[in-house]
């Protein structure tokens, strides 16, 4: 069917666009950047928020009595739009001033300062006074959770977080409450997030335009530990961090900064710099073996085996099914996440090897994720109250530390991870993007199951950005059916199918964040630009391609770990250190 | 459940018309002679207003007492007591009307019932003290037709209110009810029905005045597996109660109109979104829906045609914004009643994403009679661009508070001074507020403006749903603007910035002004802010919310100026701007004021003139009420 | 406010109301009306039951409850007082009535007296504008009320 087109005039430009294009989109095509605030449309994901409610993007349309929001007004044939008349500019400015009149304006001490969309508008609109300030401030709450800090007096009620939490993630922890001036976004009964079904996925933080939702900051805690001579402080870095960290230093999205990052971490004073990718390879050993076990028992007709098996690397996803699907706790793999496998091995195998007492060893992780902070705090990952991973910092926090420590990130040389916990294969690297865990697992499962060497390691069929993807892999005549879902809403769809007995998969990978970890809640802000996420994904695949080893089971240090310490995958020791169990956390 | 045929409907009409005849005839009668059983009147009917206003004054007890007295006198076979909908003259309620002599008793109390039965119904002698007294001539008037309040009215939407028993479908049928529907189903194509409504020029009575026929056509044009007809009965405008009165007094007209609309646009389901605060209207509507279903006038294959239609009730829950049609639809879907951007219009994507036609109660009440009497007839009433009548809830500082219906084009002066009987207590007229929180205040200079959609808009107000509040010289226009804005701030859904924060800031400025802390700069800010809110708010309600402020700024700028420059409230309403003082000439030094002053602000020795210390005075007014010598002056 | 556990029979009645409406999220407002009717308010536990039955996040239910003024999470007094703040009543002095009620009862709008006897609210137009100013106490409408009448009315209701 031929696409219908409409022609219109925007300012001095004539333009023809497909029917259904908004005025905002049409204007962008011709380089007119109409300011927005509540609007977000992260193409290629389901992250969208178009309430047309902030009224920052208003434009004048000939023949209409009132100004119209460009974000939600569709172009029509013959429309005449003016985007920057005095009337429009004054209206926008006054609307922004109104928002500022119910905002603390403490930019100097705000964690979002210089990365805040409201601050940018104030600058752009040349706001030099606050004519409406001095009035009442709306009724808001503050909260500090293990992962997320809510400072709702900075909320401008754009409702991006509400859209993400409900429409994308289907968690429903946050929603609009009350009405009028005191409307705000809050968990049910205006209680705390910790009392809600929040998964700490952090997507609300990832879309928040202001400082209302930010991460729990551990930078000071880390600086204290680093300066404590009695502590050995080691760090692990998740795969997605290296593909995004450069953005914080003005480097183009997709710049791979692995070497610089390792260098900077050493400069900060870490005693050892390790890689979560190592633990990702370890995860494949455990999870892959579990897959093969369950699969072969299933194929042998064991009725007690439930399929599909679901990956369990993503802590927000774990929180999600503990809250929302307590009846299905036996389906996900029992393998701990790479972060926790790392911590567990570091504080046993490696600590013993190095002769460092557990209480003197501090394991820190750098994660693209906020749920990881909460995961560190889970009681089942502690020995005598001492956590396997002491705490986790987001990519953004690491960037702040690097800046604070005067490290000229763009200029520093590359450095290598330490061994043994810093060595990884390409399979470990792609954990950071949606489909990566599945691809890594397939590389090993294929070789172990078929006994044949896998020549072409790239499983293109599991890559991509679609919310739910499916693929079949031929394992010596057995057709292994796999599914990949990213975004918890997509996960819910698959889980509902499984619950209804309509499942067609053997293995499913689930990541809570759209795009996988590269789009995590701890990453540099994407401000609605989908190209940034795509560039990060490409960077991870590039790093994988450049690695000499690309299958987890080929990692020599992993092999050594099993030989020296764990025995075999799924051994008793492996079970104790690398596997976990799940809890019913339903709140309703 | 049986399905009526048109012949059945005819039969019901005929038999019910016989019952109604006595009322119809007395309506036309002009004689003033009273009737009674003793005078040979064969039978009488007593109509008692059962509207919310009169019920609040125990009109149901009047009904009980009347029935009891009739029973005791053994005349139950000759006298019938009928509870009707609102007569409109709420100021004088409860109303009891005697048929056939048309005696219109006002402010009846339950204890009067016995006397009405004995003296009037049996004895044939009117009870003079219950008659209405014309304030102009001081003479009592027994027939409402001769009262100023009714003389200028033309009751079309209210045609059955106060005339029929709303809980008796037969009485509605007797007045040709459901025949327009029957005609549509048997003789007209949907397009013809829409055409007729378009030709009538009927415009939406809910506020905006959008042509109803065009709206229907827009919904009819949509292709969809399901469509909906929605009746907006979420009358939230403070001081407006016309929709409630129609639902209480003539619920079948709404049901019939919705069914006709369903036929015209191709919908088989109707929803009434009604305020939960209207228990009586809900009850009457439920009864009416049941009765229509029992007659097969709702349900499958109506009147034997292949058209099926049914109606469900959805309740509002106290949110003014739900009068906005997109908000209303979200509320019906079980969500927060927040408006969404139009387009898409409900006609394209409404309830559950399906094409939905939303009309308000009064609009719908006009539909059956337009189809009955024809578009041409309708166009003879009212003005060219606003044909027909409009119902107003007349309230405030006016002698005759009540529900009135006048042809469009009637002037404000006629409404206020003739129908309304002028300003209460002989005070001076100051302003009339129309359109509720979306409207504005009109002044003396607008009094001769013929009322219609366009004229009111041009004058800086709007028709709104039909609230009309009259204000006198004692009303401070800054306070009135503040009152409306306070309402808007409380009722704002909070979705868009201009309404959520902008109105709040305007309210704060108005509070400042009424507290004597305002500046001229504040007045400019009010104007700028008001204009930006009008220009940028998301929904119709937000866009009109600054109107009360902007219109009073336009029409009463001097009064604002007095507040900010001289720090004086000319109407003596703004507490903070008042000064209490004692006139030494009148003060005899009785001490009564000082004794009762809660702030100990009055000093003075006995039998000597007292003094109020302004710095201590809290302006509570206690001294004024205690002084027997008129010695306290407020300035 | 502490979480109050609902009596078993109330919980069952709430579930029955949801079932009657087909557990349809679109019926939420009708369900809330009926549920509130059970005890005069909508405690947290009741909202959780409704959320579970309709399979929607409880934050949605709470969002709706707090949007509409008709719904309340605090038990009303034995005699709920509502002062009409419609325009007609306002211009005929309802604000004075409200102030007097506040003064006499020692509570603000939206509050209940400690003995649970009275609660005070405002409402917008009961449509008895002819009787302005109007106050509703329970189901009874008091018309043409003066501040001076209030003391007596409250005493009568004791």
TrEMBL record, chain C:
Top-level enzyme category: oxidoreductase
Single GO MF descriptor: metal ion binding
Cofactor note: Binds 1 [2Fe-2S] cluster.
The keyword Metal-binding is assigned to this record: yes
Binding site for [2Fe-2S] cluster: 84, 89, 125, 129
Cofactor dependency: [2Fe-2S] cluster
Record's keyword terms, sorted: 2Fe-2S, Iron, Iron-sulfur, Metal-binding, Oxidoreductase
E.C. code: 1.6.5.11
Keyword Iron: yes
Similarity remark: Belongs to the complex I 24 kDa subunit family.
Protein name: NADH-quinone oxidoreductase subunit NuoE
Source organism (scientific name): Candidatus Aphodosoma intestinipullorum
High-level lineage: Bacteria, Pseudomonadati, Bacteroidota, Bacteroidia, Bacteroidales
């Amino acid at each position: 069917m031929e696409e219908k087109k409409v022609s219109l005039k925007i300012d001095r430009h004539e333009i023809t666009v497909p029917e259904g294009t908004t005025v905002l989109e049409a204007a962008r095509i011709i380089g007119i950047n109409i300011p927005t605030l509540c609007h977000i449309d992260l193409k290629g994901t389901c992250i969208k928020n178009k309430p047309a409610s902030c009224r920052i993007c208003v434009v004048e349309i000939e023949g209409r009595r009132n100004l119209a929001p460009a974000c939600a007004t569709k172009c029509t044939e013959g429309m005449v739009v003016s985007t920057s008349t005095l009337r429009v500019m004054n209206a926008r400015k006054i609307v922004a001033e109104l928002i500022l009149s119910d905002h603390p304006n403490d930019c100097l001490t705000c964690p979002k300062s210089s990365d805040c969309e409201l601050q940018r508008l104030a600058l752009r609109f040349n706001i030099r006074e606050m004519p409406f300030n001095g009035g009442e401030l709306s009724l808001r709450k503050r909260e500090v959770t293990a992962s997320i800090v809510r400072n709702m007096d900075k909320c401008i009620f754009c409702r991006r977080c509400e859209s993400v939490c409900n429409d994308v993630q289907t968690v429903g922890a946050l929603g609009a409450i009350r009405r009028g001036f005191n409307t705000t976004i809050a968990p049910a009964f205006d209680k705390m997030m910790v009392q809600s079904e929040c998964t700490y996925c952090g997507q609300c933080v990832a879309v928040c335009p202001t400082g209302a939702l930010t991460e729990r900051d551990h930078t000071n805690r880390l600086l204290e530990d680093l300066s404590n001579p009695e502590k050995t402080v080691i760090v692990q870095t998740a795969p997605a961090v290296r593909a995004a960290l450069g953005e914080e230093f003005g480097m183009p999205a997709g710049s791979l900064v692995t070497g610089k990052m390792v260098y900077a971490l050493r400069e900060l004073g870490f005693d050892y710099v390790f890689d979560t990718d190592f633990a990702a390879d370890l995860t494949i050993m455990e999870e892959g073996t579990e897959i093969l076990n369950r699969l072969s028992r299933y194929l042998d007709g064991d009725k007690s085996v439930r399929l599909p098996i679901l990956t369990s690397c993503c802590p927000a996803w774990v929180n999600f099914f503990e809250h929302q699907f307590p009846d299905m706790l036996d389906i996900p793999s029992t393998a701990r996440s790479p972060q926790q496998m790392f911590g567990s091995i570091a504080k046993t195998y490696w600590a013993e090897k190095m002769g460092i007492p557990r209480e003197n060893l501090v394991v820190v992780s750098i994660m693209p994720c906020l749920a990881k902070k909460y995961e560190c705090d889970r009681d089942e990952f502690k020995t005598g109250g001492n956590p396997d991973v002491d705490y986790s910092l987001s990519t953004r926090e690491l960037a702040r530390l690097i800046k604070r420590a005067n490290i000229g990130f763009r200029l520093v040389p590359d450095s290598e991870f330490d061994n043994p916990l810093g060595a990884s294969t390409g399979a470990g690297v792609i954990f950071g993007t949606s489909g990566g865990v599945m691809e890594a697992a397939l590389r090993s499962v294929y070789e172990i199951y078929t006994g044949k060497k896998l020549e072409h390691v790239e499983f293109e069929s599991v890559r991509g950005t679609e919310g739910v993807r499916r693929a079949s892999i031929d394992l010596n005549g057995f057709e292994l059916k796999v599914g990949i879902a990213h975004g918890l809403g997509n996960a819910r769809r698959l889980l509902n199918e499984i619950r209804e007995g309509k499942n067609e998969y053997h293995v499913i990978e689930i990541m809570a964040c759209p795009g996988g970890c590269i789009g995590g809640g701890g990453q540099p802000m994407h401000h609605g630009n989908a190209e940034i996420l795509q560039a990060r994904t490409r960077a991870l695949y590039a790093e994988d391609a450049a690695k000499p080893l690309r299958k987890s089971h080929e990692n020599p240090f992993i092999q050594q770990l099993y030989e020296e310490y764990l025995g075999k995958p799924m051994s008793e020791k492996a079970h104790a250190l690398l596997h976990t169990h799940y809890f019913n956390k339903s709140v309703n | 459940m049986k399905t009526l045929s048109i012949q059945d409907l005819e039969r019901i009409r005929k038999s019910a018309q016989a019952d109604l005849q006595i009322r119809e005839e007395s309506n036309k009668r002009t004689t003033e002679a009273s009737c009674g059983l003793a005078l040979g009147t064969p039978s009488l009917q007593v109509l008692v207003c059962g509207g919310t206003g009169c019920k609040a004054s125990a009109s149901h007890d009047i009904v009980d007492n009347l029935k009891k007295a009739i029973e005791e006198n053994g005349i139950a076979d000759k006298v019938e007591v009928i509870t009707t909908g609102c007569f409109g003259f709420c100021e004088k309620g409860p109303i009891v009307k005697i048929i056939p002599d048309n005696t219109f008793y006002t402010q009846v109390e339950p204890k009067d019932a016995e006397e009405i039965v004995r003296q009037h119904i049996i004895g044939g002698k009117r009870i003079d003290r219950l008659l209405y007294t014309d304030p102009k001539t001081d003479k009592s008037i027994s027939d409402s037709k001769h009262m100023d309040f009714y003389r200028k009215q033309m009751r079309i939407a209210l045609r059955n209110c106060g005339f029929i028993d709303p809980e008796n479908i037969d009485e509605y049928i007797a007045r040709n009810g459901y025949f327009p529907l029957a005609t549509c189903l048997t003789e007209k194509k949907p397009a013809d029905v829409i055409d007729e409504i378009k030709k009538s020029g009927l415009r939406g009575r809910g506020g905006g005045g959008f042509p109803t026929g065009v709206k229907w056509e827009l919904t009819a044009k949509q292709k969809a597996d399901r469509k909906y007809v929605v009746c907006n009965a979420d009358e939230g405008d403070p001081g407006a109660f016309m929709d409630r009165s129609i639902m209480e007094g003539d619920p079948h007209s709404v049901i019939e109109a919705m069914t006709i609309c369903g036929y015209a646009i191709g919908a088989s389901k109707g929803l009434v979104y009604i305020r939960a605060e209207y228990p009586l209207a809900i009850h009457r509507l439920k009864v009416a829906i049941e009765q229509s279903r029992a007659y097969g006038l709702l349900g499958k294959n109506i009147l034997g045609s292949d058209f099926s239609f049914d109606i469900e009730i959805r309740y509002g829950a106290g949110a003014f914004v739900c009068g906005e049609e997109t908000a209303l639809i979200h509320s019906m879907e079980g969500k927060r009643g927040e408006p969404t951007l139009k387009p898409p219009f409900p006609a394209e994507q409404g309830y559950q994403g399906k094409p939905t036609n939303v009309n308000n109660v009064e609009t719908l009440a006009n539909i059956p009679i337009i189809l009955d009497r024809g578009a041409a007839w309708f166009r003879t009433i009212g003005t060219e661009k606003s044909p027909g009548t409009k119902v107003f809830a007349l309230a405030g500082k006016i002698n005759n508070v009540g529900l009135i219906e006048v042809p469009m084009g009637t002037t404000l002066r006629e409404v206020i001074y003739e129908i309304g009987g002028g300003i209460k207590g002989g005070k001076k007229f100051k302003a009339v507020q129309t359109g509720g929180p979306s409207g504005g205040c009109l002044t003396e200079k607008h009094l001769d403006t013929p009322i219609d959609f366009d004229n009111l808009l041009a004058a800086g107000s709007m028709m709104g749903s039909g609230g009309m509040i009259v204000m006198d010289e004692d009303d401070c226009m800054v306070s009135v603007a503040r009152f409306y804005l306070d309402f808007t701030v409380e009722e704002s859904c909070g979705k868009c910035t201009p309404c959520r924060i902008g109105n709040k800031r305007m309210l704060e400025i108005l509070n400042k002004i009424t507290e004597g802390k305002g500046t001229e700069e504040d007045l400019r800010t009010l104007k700028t802010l008001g204009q930006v809110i009008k220009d940028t708010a998301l929904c119709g309600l937000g866009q009109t919310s600054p109107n009360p402020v902007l219109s009073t700024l336009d029409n009463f700028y001097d009064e604002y100026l007095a507040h900010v420059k001289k720090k004086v409230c000319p109407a003596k309403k703004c507490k903070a701007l008042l000064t209490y003082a004692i006139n030494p000439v009148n003060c005899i030094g009785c001490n009564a004021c000082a004794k009762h002053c809660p702030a100990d602000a009055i000093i003075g020795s006995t039998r000597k003139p007292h003094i109020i210390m302004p710095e201590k005075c809290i302006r509570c007014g206690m001294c004024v009420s205690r002084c027997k010598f008129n010695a306290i002056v407020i300035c | 406010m502490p979480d109050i556990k609902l009596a078993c029979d109330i919980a069952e009645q709430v579930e029955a109301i949801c079932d009657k409406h087909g557990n349809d999220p679109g019926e939420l407002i009708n369900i809330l009306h009926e549920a509130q009717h059970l005890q005069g308010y909508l405690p947290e536990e009741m909202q959780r039951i409704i959320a579970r039955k309709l399979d929607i996040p409880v934050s949605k239910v709470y969002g709706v409850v707090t949007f509409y003024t008709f719904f309340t999470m605090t038990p009303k007094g034995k005699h709920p007082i509502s002062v009409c703040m419609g325009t007609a009543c306002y211009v005929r002095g309802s604000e004075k009535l409200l102030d007097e009620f506040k003064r006499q009862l020692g509570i603000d709008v939206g509050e209940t007296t400690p003995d649970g006897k009275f609660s005070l609210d405002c409402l917008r137009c009961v449509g008895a504008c002819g009787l302005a100013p109007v106050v509703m106490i329970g189901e009874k409408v008091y018309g043409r009320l003066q501040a001076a009448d209030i003391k007596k009315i409250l005493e009568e209701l004791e």
